Fold each of these.
Amino acid sequence: MHTSSVQQNILSELDHELASTRRVLERVPHDQADYRPHPKSMTLWQLATHVVNLLAFKQLFVQHASRDFLDPNGPKPGPTPTSQEELLARFDEYSATLRQALQATDDEQLTDSFRLHRGEHTLFDWPKATAIRLMGLNHSIHHRGQLTVYLRLLDIPIPGLYGPSADEQ
């Protein structure tokens, strides 16, 4: 009987989603960075950058016990990428760092708690594996889905994510 660890399951899921996310990011045109489908929506570039920066957030879940949004010394994303090349380079760097952090952990550490808070107000306090899946992977997949809608509205072909897209049929 083959047993699989929580860590290995997360790594497998992460690898699949990172490959899919990179295919979407490769199609984000910097020359349309200011596009937004609605006044309340992020711009195309803000959304693409957010998808990339979420990778560093996931790494926090793995390596730390908490994060206070009010802490002025808390980790912050780097400057906004100014080209698709910079965006993809950051994606690749953050992806590799996240994978290394996950590989250096184990199932027992992934059951430790991670608390996300704003001062005394707790946003969530979950086992690290849960935080990685819900606020890490699922959160990224949600924003990647938004990004594919932006691309569709800009008439940019969508890559297949869980099978062929309408553009690949």
Amino acid sequence: MTGLTFTPDPRPHIQLLGGFRLGFGPTPVHVVPGAQRLLALLALRESPVPRGVAAALLWPEATARRAAACLRSSLWRLGKPAPLVVAADDVLTLGVEVDVDFHRACALTADPGASPDAVTVLKAELLPGWAQPWVLAEQDWWHQARLRALEALSENFLATGDRHHAHEAALAAVQTDPLRESAHRTLVELHLADGNPAQAVRQFQRYRRLLRTELGLEPSPHIHDLIRPLLRSAR
């Protein structure tokens, strides 16, 4: 896998990373909010969703009758450009021809390899700005999965001698979760491997200040052990 850039494929594709987008090849398609939510729900679930469940999740403030009507309206709209949604036996599924960037990104978290393009994919947030309960759980999973993948990616780059991209992946993990110690520890180790002890100490000190300010905690002995010899020699 080399990335999630869309190709000139005439099949419909749904982008969930970095924001919602529906397109056919390079051509974007305008989708009303209700239909966007329906497509996103089906893309995230990857399994048949009963109509009643979809209506209740997507229009939680509406009555059951009103929610069902909104669902019918969204399905009618989505039936215009292509068979994006399949309705059978009172359940809904995404059309088999629909490509979803998030599905490929999930596969990347299981095996990030050592592709520079993977850093860009793993840095992207899932449906930023969406706060529906059924989205929040997926966002939390993606947040943790991509952090682990970025750290693994950094290790893979380092194993191949590519310290530049190893540093880029580790930095992306720190930017994604500034309080994640394992990501800071990876950056400290990379600075030490590059022969930059001063930068390693600065990285540690930035993390320690942030941790104290945000949580009133101290870094673990593990990261302290990396820096302690340098702090002794500076005295």
